[in-house]
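Progress note, sequence design subtask.
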């Protein structure tokens, strides 16, 4: 079940959502719904206890999803892939991007709490 909602969003946010939708070959509305879903489902990083925050810092894609993502990306580089595979690739990429964003937020909070050192310019 779904509900129709008319929402006015700032131009910059709309531009970013349209760019995301185009890059992932999805409708604008679907990109916005995904953003809303993530905002509701993701934990409030700043409110997490230290141990949960550090666990997010170390978050990685599980090995089965990583293997599937790598295989789909390799096939996609070789040429067009069937639509079900394309949809799965999009789903895995969204999950990967979402995980990276959550991990970055966790690192920022961990650094501000003094639980992790700030990253250096060379990434170490």
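Output:
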């Amino acid at each position: 079940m779904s509900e129709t909602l008319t929402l006015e969003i700032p131009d910059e946010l709309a531009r970013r959502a349209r760019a995301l939708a185009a890059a992932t070959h999805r409708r604008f509305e679907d990109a916005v719904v995904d953003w809303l879903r993530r905002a509701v489902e993701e934990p409030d990083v700043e409110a997490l206890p230290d141990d949960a925050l550090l666990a997010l810092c170390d978050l990685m894609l599980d090995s089965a999803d990583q293997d599937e993502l790598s295989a789909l990306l390799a096939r996609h580089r070789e040429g067009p892939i069937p639509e079900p595979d394309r949809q799965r690739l999009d789903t895995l990429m969204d999950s990967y991007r979402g995980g990276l964003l959550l991990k970055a937020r966790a690192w920022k909070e961990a650094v501000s709490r003094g639980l992790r050192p700030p990253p250096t310019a060379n990434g170490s």
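Residues 4 and 68 are 35 Å apart (CA to CA). Work on this subtask will continue into the next period as scheduled.
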